[in-house]
Design goal:
Pfam families: DUF1501. Keywords: Signal. InterPro entries: DUF1501. By secondary structure, the chain is an alpha/beta fold. It has one domain. The protein is 32% helix and 13% strand. It has 12 helices and 12 strands. The strands form 2 sheets. Strands 1, 5, 6, 7, 8, 9, 10, 11 and 12 form a 9-stranded mixed beta sheet that branches. It has a 3-stranded antiparallel beta sheet with strand order 2-4-3. Helix 6 runs antiparallel to helix 12 and helix 9 packs parallel to helix 10. It is globular and about 70 Å long. The N and C termini lie far apart (54 Å).
Length: 412
């Protein structure tokens, strides 16, 4: 069995993914000041219906296009939660209303990728590579971000919670992947002293692989320590909720509090492809939005004072059709809504160039248009929150579009 195969086995038998070759781990450093400002990205795979997340109930076309699945007006049964007299929040996201009132939550409507694909695979790839329309990009924009941030590289500077290392973190910078739910802190085969010692001895004589192996072991121990220090005292209290995300969000908040080197986190959630029986204030979409909102609220609360130095971005590959289909659902669309949460957010406002839902305003006569490129949103977070220079920004987002006027959702 060669060492490459053993590294893959280590990844499969534990919760840690260790890239090799182009993605070999870099040296571990300790520079908590450089990692003080945090970024969490939540990706909703499957194309969430932004027009029901932040519903333009003030546009008469909204109810006309969605007679069954459209949200009722605020104050009515199952109605939207009023945001500004025109837009309303889905009632299943009521747990986020306090953040809106505290002006720590904002939305950018009619945002998304300029590429018009309706393919989930392609659109997600573009969202994660940060280069819409270009499939040749090898790395993800979060990985490129890691390469320009100040401070020493560390395997736990960026973590992902999910079954696999995501495309968005692919590249030469180190990153760590944790399983979701209880498996995220489950001991691996290498945590058994005899087996771990045998692997340690095997890699001692190989300069080529020893660094990658040891950094991976150190990152795993670091994450396990941050995760487990309270777990033994409350073993029965950590059972995940059926929907999972609130528990994972609490776990992530604890990891970030306990390990100051964690600066970037990524979580992907599926189940948003609502072609049929989507529902309105209640139903399939509501059942997915409720734990999402609860998880985000849990994360914000769990971070405590650290939330003031954290920006959370929620995004999805594209939106859904403005008009409901014959199955009580929506089909693949174009423009969507992005969410931003955090202490530095100029919240309590829906941003973006909103043009309405009239037939003449719809993209290809069926979709919300994209009037704000998703990279403009991410670039503002990178520049104002993470303090990237123009040169660094160009490395993270090559062929960056011009800044969208009036898009000032972060305090300087």
């Amino acid at each position: 069995m060669d060492r490459r195969h053993l590294l893959k086995l280590m990844a499969l038998t534990g919760s840690l993914v260790i890239p090799v070759g182009r993605q070999a781990w870099a040296a571990v450093g300790d520079d908590s000041a450089a990692t003080r400002r945090k970024l969490v990205v939540v990706m909703l795979r499957g194309a969430v219906d932004g027009l029901n997340v932040v519903a333009p109930y003030g546009d008469a076309n909204y109810a006309r296009l969605r007679p069954i699945i459209g949200l009722a007006r605020p104050g009515q049964d199952g109605g939207a939660l009023d945001l500004d007299g025109y837009f309303g929040l889905h009632p299943a996201l009521a747990s986020l209303q306090p953040l809106w009132e505290q002006k720590k939550l904002a939305f950018i409507h009619a945002s998304g990728s300029p590429d018009a694909t309706r393919s989930h695979f392609d659109a997600q790839d573009y969202l994660e590579s940060g280069t819409p329309g270009r499939k040749s990009t090898q790395d993800g924009w979060l990985n490129r971000l890691l390469t320009v941030l100040p401070g020493a590289a560390s395997p736990t500077r960026a973590i992902s919670i999910g079954p696999l290392m995501p495309r968005i973190l692919a590249g030469r910078a180190p990153a760590t992947n944790l399983a979701a739910g209880a498996a995220g802190t489950k001991q691996s085969i290498l945590d058994r002293p005899q087996i771990g010692s045998a692997f340690d001895q095997m890699y001692q004589g190989s300069d080529k692989f020893a660094s990658a192996y040891q950094d991976g072991r150190d990152a795993h121990k670091e994450v396990m320590t941050a995760s487990m220090q309270d777990e033994m005292q409350a073993a029965n209290g950590g059972a995940p909720l059926p929907n999972g995300f609130p528990n994972d969000a609490a776990h992530l908040a604890k990891l970030m509090r306990n390990d100051p080197k964690i600066q970037i986190a990524f979580v992907a959630l599926g189940g948003w492809d609502t072609h049929a029986y989507q529902g309105n204030g209640k139903g399939q979409l509501a059942n997915r939005l409720m734990p999402l909102g609860q998880g985000l609220a849990t994360l914000a609360q769990g971070l405590g004072p650290m939330f003031d130095d954290t920006t959370i971005v929620v995004m999805s590959e594209f939106g859904r059709t403005a008009r409901q289909n014959g199955n009580g659902g929506t089909d693949h669309g174009h423009g969507n809504v992005m969410w931003v949460l955090g202490g530095g957010v100029a919240g309590g406002k829906v941003y973006g160039d909103w043009q309405g839902l009239g037939e003449a305003q719809l993209h290809e006569g069926r979709d919300l248009p994209v009037t704000t490129d998703f990279r403009s949103v991410l670039a503002q977070v990178s520049e104002r929150h993470l303090r990237l220079s123009d040169q660094q920004l160009a490395q993270v987002f090559p062929a960056m579009p011009a800044a969208s006027p009036g898009l000032n959702f972060l305090r300087s």
